[in-house]
């Protein structure tokens, strides 16, 4: 099957006072229609920049400096701003981390939804309003015909995120980018929102790019996962393999640092020592080297490429380069 | 909302009373008296005292105040001690010119400040931004009297294009064009000052809003950048701007004392100046009452507009 979205060796740079800084480098992944791709990594690893690059919403200071993004045969980097506007909110839409601040406080929910609907669908005001109410109903907003005239401040965080989802899905996008959609919500609301996204995905067949730092959310939602570290993809595989046998030491570290409910009393939670190198002085070679328990000489000399480590499994780690016999085994396995 | 407004109006009564009491005391504490201003310095002291008695200026302060207050409640603001005209009539004659001058200056100032502020906020650190903030700095820094004199020198004395003062040409027809010509210079002076202050305000207010998440949401919906700035951002940025403008409405009636004086503009500012110089107590008291009333009214109006502009604000 054709891929809906292909991101190929994407590099995004931002202008700063200290010159241009490369935020994400050599990011590649592919997404099929109806698939859910999870992107995990800690704050500042480039998850959001990746998604904003796809939307081309990097602001005046950011630009895609290398690589390409192919969405349904179109190279997004080559489109004009007007063509890109037709795609935003229509073919690709986005929901954000902060439902409390992502809606404009001075316009009613209905106004903001109708604005998006009328930009991309040829509906008159009345029909757009009816459609907005219909969408609010679909995302489980009670009394949608009343709520449509409410201002955002009258809604709770969970309700606002539902509104954001209703707005994002109203033009039936092919791809929904969800940037930490549940991070700002409390746990029960998180579960409700994830459940809602799952349900809507089944109904509409929308592909989802789910950005999160919560491995629990990934386990719940994703088909395929990429792990990012310091602006690069360090591991890519399906969700089961990721949890069963993570290959990259960073992923392994992440797995160990998940708190378990059956942990011994007084047991310390494992953590990864050190911190992410800053963008201004990214080390040569492997970027995780300084924090890696398995660091070797080779790691300092040379940045590992994404190395196959099994079926549909890539890892950016020299450890994956196995002796010839084992590599053969893996290939057959 | 209605209950809130009524409550605010009731609170205004004691505030106004307090203001008039304080004003009355301060005015009377100032040295000099109206009588000294109106007579020949050689008049014998006994005659001065007689005149003071006749005007009630030798009564105890509290009695003078009560007399004034009772008259005000009857709708009588008294008579000017210098022109013997009714104070209400004098103020009434001057409100028109002042509102024209100040209103126009406000409109000109905002017409410059709002677009420039937005442009300079959306293109931070560009040449245009530096030009706007630099211009704003000049607008704030140049004293009105200096700018006024400079403009009079250039446009009235040297170029002979515009009149140097007054509201109409004496002996002229007093038509629209004539009035407009007289307005240009004072409006330019006052408008520059207002624009200077407001450019920075609009700029920082818009910059504040430009970083908000909901603008990213609007862009992600496919809204064009022009609408993102001029609809989604501006509507939010206007809330604090409306507040600041609302609180300045009182000077619409208070007039510009210095500028009116320089351009001999027959407005409230000039009247205030004149009444202070002449120790014209009844006129001063009425002017102060008017100013206090305007401040309270503008405050209330601002609060009401605020709740209209920002749906998050509701008064109970």
From TrEMBL, chain A:
Which residue ranges does the record assign to the ABC transporter domain? Answer: 8-255
What is the membrane topology noted in the UniProt record heading this document? Peripheral membrane protein
A GO MF annotation of the entry reads: ATP hydrolysis activity
| Keyword entries, A-Z | ATP-binding, Cell membrane, Membrane, Nucleotide-binding, Transport
Its GO CC terms? plasma membrane
Q: Which Gene3D superfamilies match?
A: P-loop containing nucleotide triphosphate hydrolases
**Cellular compartments annotated:** Cell membrane
For the biological process aspect of GO, one term held by this record is:
peptide transport
Task: Output the superkingdom of the source species.
Answer: Bacteria
Instruction: Decide whether keyword Repeat is in the record.
Output: no
Does GTP-binding show up as a keyword for this record? Answer: no
PANTHER family for the chain: DIPEPTIDE TRANSPORT ATP-BINDING PROTEIN DPPD, OLIGOPEPTIDE TRANSPORT ATP-BINDING PROTEIN APPD
Question: Which family is annotated?
Answer: Belongs to the ABC transporter superfamily.
What protein name does the entry list? Peptide/nickel transport system ATP-binding protein
Species source reads Paenibacillus algorifonticola
UniProtKB/TrEMBL annotation, chain B:
Q: Which Gene3D superfamilies match?
A: MetI-like
Q: Does the keyword Membrane apply?
A: yes
Q: How does it sit in the membrane?
A: Multi-pass membrane protein
Instruction: Show where the ABC transmembrane type-1 domain sits.
Output: 95-302
Main subcellular location of this protein, as a coarse class:
membrane
Q: Where are the transmembrane segments?
A: 9-30, 99-119, 131-156, 176-195, 237-263, 283-306
GO CC annotation: what is one?
plasma membrane
Q: SUPFAM superfamilies, from UniProt?
A: MetI-like
Keywords for this entry?
Answer: Cell membrane, Membrane, Transmembrane, Transmembrane helix, Transport
Q: What subcellular compartments does it reside in?
A: Cell membrane
Q: Please give the biological process terms from Gene Ontology that the record holds.
A: transmembrane transport
Q: Which InterPro entries match?
A: BPD_transp_1_N, MetI-like, MetI-like_sf
Similarity comment: family membership: Belongs to the binding-protein-dependent transport system permease family.
| Name this protein carries in UniProt | Peptide/nickel transport system permease protein
């Amino acid at each position: 099957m054709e891929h809906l979205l292909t991101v190929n060796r994407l590099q995004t740079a931002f202008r700063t006072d200290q010159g241009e800084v490369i935020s994400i480098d050599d990011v590649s992944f592919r997404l099929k229609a109806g698939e859910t791709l999870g992107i995990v990594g800690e704050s500042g690893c480039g998850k959001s920049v990746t998604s904003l690059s796809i939307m081309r919403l990097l602001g005046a200071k950011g630009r895609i400096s290398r690589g390409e993004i192919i969405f349904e045969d179109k190279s997004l980097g080559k489109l004009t701003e007007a063509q890109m506007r037709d795609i935003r909110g229509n073919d690709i839409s986005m929901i954000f981390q902060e439902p409390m601040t992502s809606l404009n406080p001075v316009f009613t929910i209905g106004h903001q939804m109708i604005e998006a609907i009328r930009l991309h669908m040829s509906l008159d005001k009345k029909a757009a309003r009816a459609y907005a109410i219909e969408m609010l109903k679909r995302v489980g907003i009670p009394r949608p015909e009343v709520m449509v005239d409410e201002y955002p401040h009258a809604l709770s965080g969970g309700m606002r995120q539902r509104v954001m989802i209703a707005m994002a899905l109203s033009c039936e996008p092919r791809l929904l980018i969800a940037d930490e959609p549940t991070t700002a919500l409390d746990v029960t609301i998180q579960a409700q929102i994830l459940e809602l996204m799952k349900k809507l995905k089944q109904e509409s067949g929308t592909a989802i790019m789910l950005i999160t730092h919560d491995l629990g959310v990934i386990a719940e939602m994703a088909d395929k996962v990429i792990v990012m570290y310091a602006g690069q993809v360090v591991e890519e595989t399906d969700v089961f393999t990721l949890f069963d046998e993570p290959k990259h030491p960073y992923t392994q570290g992440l797995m160990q640092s998940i708190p378990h409910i059956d942990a011994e009393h007084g047991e310390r939670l494992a953590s990864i020592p050190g911190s992410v190198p800053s963008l201004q002085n990214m080390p040569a070679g492997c970027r995780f080297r300084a924090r890696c328990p398995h660091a070797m000489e080779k790691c300092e000399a040379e940045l590992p490429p994404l190395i196959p480590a099994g079926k549909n499994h890539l890892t950016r780690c020299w450890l994956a380069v196995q002796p010839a016999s084992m590599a053969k085994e893996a290939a057959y396995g | 909302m209605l209950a809130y407004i009524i409550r605010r109006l009731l609170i205004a009564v004691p505030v106004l009373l307090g203001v008039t009491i304080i004003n009355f005391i301060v005015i009377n504490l100032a040295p000099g008296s109206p009588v000294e201003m109106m007579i020949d310095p050689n008049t014998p002291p006994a005659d001065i005292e007689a005149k003071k008695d006749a005007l009630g200026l030798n009564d105890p302060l509290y009695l003078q105040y009560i007399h004034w207050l009772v008259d005000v409640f009857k709708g009588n603001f008294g008579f000017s001690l210098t022109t013997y005209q009714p104070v209400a009539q004098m103020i009434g004659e001057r409100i028109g010119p002042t509102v024209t001058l100040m209103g126009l200056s406000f409109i000109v100032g905002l017409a410059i400040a709002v677009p420039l502020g937005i442009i300079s906020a959306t293109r931070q650190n560009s040449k245009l931004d530096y030009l706007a903030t630099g211009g704003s700095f000049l607008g704030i820094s140049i004293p009105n009297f200096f700018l006024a004199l400079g403009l009079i020198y250039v446009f009235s004395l040297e170029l002979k294009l515009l009149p140097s003062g007054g509201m109409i040409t004496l002996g002229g027809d007093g038509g629209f064009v004539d009035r407009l010509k007289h307005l240009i210079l004072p409006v330019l002076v006052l408008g520059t000052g207002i624009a200077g202050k407001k450019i920075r305000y609009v700029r920082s207010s818009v910059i504040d809003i430009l970083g908000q998440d909901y603008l990213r949401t609007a862009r992600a919906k496919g809204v064009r950048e022009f609408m993102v700035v001029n609809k989604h951002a501006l509507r939010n940025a206007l809330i604090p701007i409306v507040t600041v403008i609302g609180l300045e409405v009182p000077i619409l009636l208070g007039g510009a004392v210095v500028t009116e004086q320089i351009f001999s503009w027959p407005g409230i500012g000039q009247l205030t100046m004149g009444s202070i110089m002449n120790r014209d107590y009844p006129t001063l008291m009425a002017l102060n009452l008017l100013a206090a009333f305007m401040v309270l009214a503008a405050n209330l109006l601002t609060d009401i507009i605020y709740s209209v502009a920002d749906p998050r604000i509701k008064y109970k």
